[in-house]
Sequence to fold (360 residues):
Amino acid sequence: MQCFSCGTQIISGSGAVSSLKSMAVGRLLVVTDPFFYQNGTARRIAEGAAPAAAEYFHKVAPDPSVTLAAEGTAAVQAFQPDTVLALGGGSAMDCAKAMVYFSGTKAKLIAIPTTSGSGSEVTDFAILTYNGVKHPLVDARLRPDVAILDSDLLAELPPPLIADGGFDVLTHALEAYVARNAGAITDALALDAFATAFRLLPQSYAGKRSARPGVHLAATMAGMAFTQAGLGLCHAIAHSLGGEFHIPHGRLNAILLPAVISRNAVTAADRYAAAARAAGLEGRADSVGVRNLRSTLIRLRRELNLPATLVQAGISPAQVRQKADSITKAALADPCCATNPVPVTEGMIREVLAEVTGHG
Ligand SMILES: NC(=O)c1ccc[n+]([C@@H]2O[C@H](COP(=O)([O-])OP(=O)(O)OC[C@H]3O[C@@H](n4cnc5c(N)ncnc54)[C@H](O)[C@@H]3O)[C@@H](O)[C@H]2O)c1
Ligand SMILES: [Fe+2]
Fold:
């Protein structure tokens, strides 16, 4: 039996934030990070909704902590909004989702992503950090009511954010496609998202703004796929490394993905080969498809100036060795392991860690 639900209304296109004015917003709480508060974008968008009253929770930092979400939850309870608007990347959206969830408010949650990456605007996930470990909360009540994909917000997206977010999209799509809970609907979303992001990312990174709406929609489609199909080993290790070392999430996926594909190809070679063909890569035999997929992702990683190892991302082999036990333990406990196509073992996580550490 399979179940697919898509409770989020998705409004997309240039100028899509103007749809807020028809949403009858009364008391509006905007959750954002300092960047969008200080540059006036949060205020401009909020004023477009013509609320009766507006308040701003604007301290969201990358990889939001449980403490920050608790502070935000208190802000929801004090202000009693009827609408919570999350503006920013995965961090602002996850923080807002957790605030709505823990406060128990019935407020409508509107998510406006400003990166093309996390897919958080349509997922049942919110990732919070506690004691150096990233904990994915997973619950259908975390899913936003509305997602507004406004490509105008991407005009000034810095290239490193395009690269980091882009590899998050590719990883969501691939992990969802090979995941244990994948089905026909998530397959269609995952394959299209993978092929689109793969084709458009180099152009978007090189500054072609017309490529960005396509990558933005691919990020949302990959989110719709993985929230139903699940993720896998790459995300489990990325969460544990991210909690420990605070390297951007998509960058960690870029480092880990080729090594994870090698481990999972034992049972998922046909699926990886199909994804490679969907992206236009050659290779009729599954083994050739997997090889081409890995090598092409490694080439794309280089083209987007992303690191290939943890050393290149600024983490020394000694730091990895020192934390290897806690990183392995956290990755093994991560819910993303449950849907990996190959049962995840401690040995497998240690092997991947050794492969991506690099030489200092
Ligand atoms: N909930 C989910 O389903 C899900 C899925 C994947 C990742 N995540 C989480 O999302 C977080 C990563 O999110 P992210 O990659 O979107 O980055 P982010 O939200 O952490 O933002 C990173 C930085 O980019 C800046 N930024 C964002 N948009 C910008 C823009 N348009 N122009 C200039 N600067 C901008 C922010 O101010 C911030 O400093 C991680 O914590 C990750 O674990 C959540
Ligand atoms: Fe991710």
The mean pLDDT is 96.
